[in-house]
UniProtKB/TrEMBL annotation:
One of its GO terms (cellular component) is cytosol. GO terms for molecular function: RNA binding. The keyword RNA-binding applies. This is Transcription antitermination protein NusB. It comes from Paragemmobacter aquarius.
Length: 154
C-alpha cells in the first residue's frame, strides 16, 4: 500500500526527473514522447552508482513535462520578467532553464500551491547544485513567478 509519504516522495522524484527530461529534450532535440517513454522505462527506479533512484509518479511527471512544453512561451516570459534585465532566459544555465519551465508548468497549469512548488523546486536546485548559490536564486525567481501566476495565494 502506498502511504501519503510515499506519494509525496514520488511526486518530488517526478519533479527532479521532469527537470532532467526537459534539459535532455533541449540538448538532444528528442520529442516529448520519446523522452517521457525513456524516463518511465529506464530512469524511474534506476540503479545509479550503486544507489537506487526513487520511483517517480508517472502521472505527475507527465503533467509537469507536458505543461512545460505546452506553456513554454508563457512560462519563459514569466521567467524573463523575474530575471534581471541583463539575464534573459536564453543566457542562463540550461538546467536552471529546465527547472524554471518545470516549476512554471505547475504554477500555470496545475493546482499545486505556489509555496509547495517553490519549496520542491528549491530542493531540486540543491540536488543539482549542492555547493552553489543557485538555490537562493531559484527561490527568488520562483517567488516572483508565483506572485504573477497565482497572486491570490499570497
Amino acid at each position: 500500500m502506498t502511504t501519503q509519504t510515499d506519494k509525496k516522495q514520488m511526486r518530488s522524484a517526478a519533479r527532479l526527473y521532469a527537470v532532467q527530461a526537459l534539459f535532455q529534450m533541449e540538448v538532444s532535440g528528442q520529442t516529448v514522447e520519446t523522452i517521457q517513454r525513456e524516463f518511465e522505462t529506464h530512469r524511474f527506479g534506476e540503479i545509479f552508482d550503486g544507489v537506487e533512484m526513487a520511483e517517480g509518479d508517472s502521472k505527475h511527471f507527465r503533467a509537469v513535462v507536458d505543461g512545460a512544453v505546452n506553456w513554454q512561451a508563457k512560462i519563459d516570459q514569466m521567467t524573463d520578467r523575474a530575471l534581471v534585465a541583463k539575464w534573459p532566459i536564453d543566457r542562463i544555465d540550461p538546467v536552471l532553464r529546465a527547472l524554471f519551465r518545470a516549476a512554471g508548468a505547475e504554477m500555470v497549469d496545475m493546482d499545486t500551491p505556489p509555496k509547495v512548488v517553490i519549496n520542491e523546486f528549491v530542493d531540486v536546485a540543491k540536488a543539482f547544485f549542492p555547493e552553489g548559490k543557485e538555490s537562493k536564486f531559484v527561490n527568488a525567481v520562483l517567488d516572483h513567478m508565483a506572485r504573477e501566476a497565482k497572486p491570490q495565494a499570497f
